[in-house]
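Letters spell out the chain; the tokens describe the backbone. To illustrate:

===
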Amino acid sequence: MSARIPGIRVASSQRIMLFDADCRISNPSLLFDWYVEQFNRGARVAYTAVGYYDLRPLWSVRARMLAHHLARWIKRVILRIPTTRGSNYATDRALFLRLYEDGFLADDLNVGPAAKAAGGRVVYSRAKDLTVLTSGRRFKGGWWKLARYLYYRLGYNLRMIGSSKGGGKKRGASYHRTPSR
């Protein structure tokens, strides 16, 4: 998050699009137009599906991807928690900076939930032609690594659920407080 802030502060646009350096965008014009359309319809954060390239063909890696996508689906569809991530989202610059300066953004995963808690409209598309791919090079495989990942994700999600119940109030909006790292 700290690497994004200097650029966002000096950006001249009120709407910003954020991607990781290792992303592959198959149709940037279509994706950018979709973002603009969502902002014109009142969105404050917009994001699309993220997939991976260069994944190792190992069963433990496949199991990790399945667990990852299933957890994100549960959060997004059942729990109605936006699942933004640094590799692919667009947001309103002023809202983003306000949330950051008020201490509600520890990482990119917090952008969607914090914006929603602040009353901002958050939209998602699972359209295949809008999917952004990010590198899977970090996923080396191994069942022990998968177990550690699942333990970490469970702990992270339980902390986020707990912190959302005790969120503070600022400027009349309820925010999800996130522990700083």
Notes: The two ends are 11 Å apart (CA to CA). The mean pLDDT is 86. The first helix runs from residue 5 to 10.
